[in-house]
Amino acid sequence: MSMNVEAEIRDLKRRVGEIEGSFGFLQIKTVHRDLLAFQAKTEQRFDRVDGRFDKIDGRLDHLDRGLRGLRSDMPKIVGDTMRDVMNGRPRKK
After folding, report:
1. Mind listing the pLDDT tens digit for each residue in 6-61?
2. Every domain of the chain and the residues it spans
3. How many angstroms separate the Cα of 38 from the Cα of each of 17, 23, 43, 78?
4. What is the pTM of this model?
5. Does an H or E element contain 9, and which?
6. Is 89 in a helix, a strand, or coil?
7. What does the DSSP assignment read for 25-80?
């Protein structure tokens, strides 16, 4: 029985390639799973941060409304105070 060395080498290369390919698939599958886990964690963190920004945005809106109201009320406040001072009346609290 003679052994065909070249055929044997080709067969071994093919088998090693198949094994390497299956390990490569397993590695890709693991990386994909890790990426999905990372994505889920990242989305949770962004949701928490987004919730914080919503709270801050609400506070800023409230502050903005207060400042705009003060801007429209300020002339009357100053005018009333100046009239009271000029007329010698004590200031109302």
Report:
1. 888 888 888 888 877 777 767 777 888 888 899 999 999 999 998 888 888 888 88
2. 1-88
3. 31, 22, 9, 58
4. 0.42
5. helix 5-87
6. coil
7. HHHHHHHHHHHHHHHHHHHHHHHHHHHHHHHHHHHHHHHHHHHHHHHHHHHHHHHH
Collect all residues with Cβ–Cβ distance below 8 Å to 81 and sequence separation of at least 6.
91
Task: Enter the tokens of residue 14.
Answer: 């093919």
Q: State yes or no: pLDDT of 86 exceeds 80.
A: yes
| Residues 53-82: tens digit of each pLDDT | 888 888 888 899 988 988 889 999 999 889
Instruction: Identify whether the C-beta of residue 78 lies closer than 8 Å to the C-beta of residue 72.
Output: no
Block residue for tokens 């964690």: 41
What is the token pair recorded at 67? 């400042």
